[in-house]
């Protein structure tokens, strides 16, 4: 088992049983996540969506009173049919063990994560830049027009 403590926690400060490796900051963490059998994570969007994209099973524990992790992330994960939401305050070791066993046995059937974001953004920018003259704010409330360079594409 590998525990990733992150950049702010000294791995040497963690008391763990034999067989558990504690690591601090892990560059290219998405590669570690893609190779895991199951992840138990905090409910951050980046980590959970990396797991969705890699089609790995996971349990996530959103931080209490954290809007993004309590509202936005679970909404997005539900749309992808991904992950199992857990409650830190209500989960005991036996409950965690049961959830891990259940998730290891569950078939992953997540909706795919779109991977064409850069292409779509470039297309939108290209379209915007080819619209011709654009307005910018002028002095005294007047509007002036300036041409947009389209030869930079």
Largest sheet composition = 3 strands, parallel
The count of helical stretches stands at 5
Radius of gyration: 22 Å
Mean model confidence by pLDDT: 88
- The strands making up the biggest β-sheet line up spatially as 3-4-5
Name the quaternary structure: single chain
**Overall 3D form:** globular
Give the strand content.
Answer: 15-25%
Strand/helix succession: EEHEHEHEHHEE
Cα end-to-end separation? 48 Å
Structural category: alpha/beta
Low-confidence stretches: 149-153
The proportion of residues forming helix, as a percent range, comes to: 25-40%
Task: Name the features.
single chain; 153 residues; alpha/beta; three-stranded parallel sheet; two-stranded parallel ribbon; 5 helices; 7 strands; 16% strand; globular; disordered C terminus
Structural description of this entry:
The chain is an alpha/beta fold. The chain has a domain at 117-146. 37% of the residues lie in helices and 16% in strands. It is built from 5 helices and 7 strands, in the order E-E-H-E-H-E-H-E-H-H-E-E. The strands form 3 sheets. The chain has a 3-stranded parallel β-sheet, sandwiched between helices. The radius of gyration is 22 Å and the shape is globular. The N and C termini lie far apart (48 Å).
Strand and helix map with partners:
Elements: E1 2-4, E2 21-23, H1 29-35, E3 39-42, H2 45-54, E4 58-61, H3 67-79, E5 84-85, H4 93-105, H5 117-129, E6 134-137, E7 143-146
Parallel strand pairs: 1-2, 3-4, 4-5
Antiparallel strand pairs: 6-7
Helix pairs in contact: 2-3
In short:
With 153 residues, this protein is of the alpha/beta class. The chain is 37% helix and 16% strand.
């Amino acid at each position: 088992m590998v525990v990733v403590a992150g950049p702010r926690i000294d791995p040497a400060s963690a008391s763990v049983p034999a067989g558990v490796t504690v690591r601090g900051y892990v560059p290219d963490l998405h590669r570690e996540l893609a190779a895991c059998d199951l992840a138990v994570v905090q409910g951050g969007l980046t980590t959970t969506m990396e797991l969705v994209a890699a089609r790995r099973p996971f349990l996530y524990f959103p931080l209490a009173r954290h809007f993004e992790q309590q509202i936005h992330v679970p909404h997005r994960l539900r749309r992808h049919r991904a992950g199992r939401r857990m409650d830190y305050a209500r989960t005991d070791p036996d409950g965690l063990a049961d959830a891990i066993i259940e998730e290891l046995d569950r078939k992953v059937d997540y909706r795919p994560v779109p991977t064409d974001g850069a292409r779509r953004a470039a297309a939108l920018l290209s379209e915007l830049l080819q619209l011709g003259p654009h307005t910018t704010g002028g002095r005294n409330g007047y509007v002036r027009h300036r041409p947009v360079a389209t030869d930079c594409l």
